[in-house]
Write a structure and sequence with these properties.
This protein is α+β, with helices and mostly antiparallel strands and 264 residues long. 36% of the residues lie in helices and 24% in strands. The chain folds into two domains: 2-161, Alpha-Beta Complex (Sulfite Oxidase, Chain A, domain 2), CATH 3.90.420.10; 166-263, Cytochrome Bc1 Complex, Chain D, domain 2 (Orthogonal Bundle). The chain has a five-stranded mixed β-sheet with strand order 2-1-11-5-6. It has a four-stranded antiparallel β-sheet with strand order 3-4-7-10. The protein has a two-stranded antiparallel sheet with strand order 8-9. The structure holds heme C.
């Protein structure tokens, strides 16, 4: 009876399939119901980063899922790119999945509650279906440690990305900029993809700021210069956020100079 109810709820909110890619090539496809049936499910409570409340979900373990779909080799890749129903494509380093316990939620523990969330920073309610990636630790509050872009919802596809990926090839030789490269990957890449030698993307979007100081203040608070901006500011509780913004800005300006040099 309980199982039938879950399936009813799933099918009423999401009828499609979940796709699994490897290096952007389709690898497997499963419908959500049969996928969930294969795994041990449990109830899990977490501090949610969007609604900032404690919520209890029905979940499956990410490691178990990846292992079943991709085999042991998934750990050798660099990151996972998620595709969400609204087109958002955040990327999460594999190292996070090895370091912290992560789960895919497919409904609230009380299946009567609609599988939606109120996103406070966007001030709107959103569907979480079909899958919502969440993190749990017995000791730490991961909603503060792991950035919100690493908690994608409406997940419809997974893609394993290797070290051959263009963004990693943009890693600067010069040690002064490697911190910025790392921070960029963590806080910006989910919305601003960088491709090798894509000066165009850099110019059109990221480097409209004529100098580093303007870029830094934009990163710290986009709404100061652009009140309607949809871009999130760097997490307010990061104690070295000024330094973080400086590192990101100097990485981007270094990249610009480097790309201009190469294009000549
Ligand atoms: C959740 C998605 C998201 C993330 C994460 C994000 N941005 Fe943005 N960014 C946007 C959007 C959307 C715009 C388009 C203009 C706007 O709404 O401000 C934008 C615009 C920009 C601009 C152009 C501003 C202008 O004057 O038009 C810069 C520069 C920028 N982002 C840098 C960054 C950097 C650096 C990071 C990482 C610290 C970052 N963004 C993280 C969504 C994001």
């Amino acid at each position: 009876m309980k199982i039938a109810l879950v399936f009813f709820l799933l099918s009423s909110t999401f009828a499609g399939e979940i796709s699994f890619y490897k290096e952007s090539v389709l690898f497997k496809k499963n419908d959500l119901e049969s996928l969930i049936q294969k795994f041990e499910t449990r109830d899990l409570s977490i501090n949610d980063p969007f609604q900032s409340t404690r919520l209890t979900f029905k979940v499956i373990k990410v490691k178990q899922l990846f292992h079943a779909i991709y085999g042991r080799e998934w750990k050798n890749f660099n990151r996972i790119r998620f595709t969400c129903a609204d087109g958002f494509q955040p990327e999460v380093p594999i190292s996070f999945f090895l370091k912290y316990d992560s789960f895919l939620a497919y409904s609230y523990s009380t299946t009567k509650k609609p599988f939606r969330i109120f996103n406070r920073s966007e001030n709107k309610s959103a569907s979480l279906a079909p899958l919502y990636l969440i993190w749990a630790s017995p000791k730490k509050n991961l909603s503060q440690l792991i950035p919100p872009s690493y908690w994608p919802y409406q997940i419809v596809a997974f893609d394993l990305i290797s070290f051959k990926d263009p963004f990693l090839q943009l890693k600067p030789q010069n040690q002064n900029f490697t911190k910025g490269h790392e921070l960029y990957q963590k806080y910006c890449l989910s919305c601003h993809q960088l491709k090798k030698n894509s000066l165009e993307i850099l110019n059109s979007k990221l480097l409209v700021k004529e100098n580093q100081n303007k870029l830094i203040s934009y990163i710290l608070n986009p709404r100061l210069s652009k009140p309607e901006s949809e871009m999130p500011m760097l997490p307010l509780d990061a104690k070295d956020r000024k330094e973080m913004a400086q590192d990101i800005a100097s990485f981007l300006f270094y990249l610009k100079e480097d790309l201009v040099k190469k294009s000549k």
